[in-house]
Design brief:
Elements (H helix, E strand, L loop, with lengths): L11 H8 L2 E2 L16 E2 L7 H17 L3 H15 L7 H26 L2
Parallel strand pairs: 1-2
Helix pairs in contact: 1-4, 2-3, 2-4, 3-4
Amino acid sequence: MNDDAYGKLPFEEAIEFFRKKLNISTRHWNDIWKEAHNKAFMIAGAQKADLLMDFRTAVEKAVTDGATLYQFQKDFDAIVKNHGWDYHGSRNWRSRIIYETNVRQAYNAGRERQMADP
């Protein structure tokens, strides 16, 4: 049995979860709290709507197409340069936090939905 295509299947429940989120501009990571993260897409310190939308597009590519952290970091660098965004922390740390938090949250929400409604 060839399982090569299995890992390339879209994870519809995770994609749907991510796409339902609303963009929310924030200053700090704790401006959105607890369960509100299930409904909000935010990047701490990304207050401009176009900056947040560019990050959302890059994260959605990771969720829908399975973009790697390395691919996301290329998008991250382009977004930061394009908007002149001044963020806190190192580039590797910040890009990894944004990528892993959002991709894992979408994946976990998708798995939870699958387990609740097999």
